């Protein structure tokens, strides 16, 4: 499989990790769109949110739990943050491995193009 995020999970591509457990990895976006811009991914490869199966729902819940913890640790939980999932080509998804963008650390204006070109 030639998935960028799977290669980050396996360690063949370096990342600036901010969170990791058995199921989830989170790392800083290399082209941040906000002072805090973290990508939260499952270690299991799932291409899009539309591909999440019933048995994957606990994994998606674990991603949300990780987002809460990361937001607290990075100091944006109280002031606010945005959690974004791009699903499919019209949304701007370019990396076909489900993930959330956690953005914060500033007043975020109207939603602008948060595409995976920031990944």
How many helices does DSSP assign? Answer: 2
End-to-end Cα distance:
18 Å
Q: How do the helices and strands follow one another from N- to C-terminus? A: HEEEHEE
What's the assembly state of these chains? single chain
Proportion of β residues?
Answer: 15-25%
User: Biggest sheet: strands, sense, closure?
Assistant: 5 strands, antiparallel
CATH superfamily: HIT-like
Could you tell me the number of beta strands? 5
Instruction: Give the strand line-up of the largest sheet.
Output: 1-2-3-5-4
The CATH architecture comes to: 2-Layer Sandwich
List the keywords.
single chain, 119 residues, alpha+beta, HIT family, subunit A, 2 helices, 5 strands, HIT-like_sf, HIT-like
What do you see in this structure?
It is a single chain. This protein is of the alpha+beta class and 119 residues long. The protein has one domain (4-106): HIT-like (HIT family, subunit A, 2-Layer Sandwich), CATH 3.30.428.10. 20% of the residues lie in helices and 21% in strands. It contains two helices and five strands, in the order αβββαββ. It has helices spanning 4-10, 57-73; strands at 17-20, 24-28, 36-42, 81-84, 100-104. The chain has a five-stranded antiparallel beta sheet, with helices on one face. A hairpin with a 7-residue loop joins β2 and β3. The two termini are 18 Å apart.
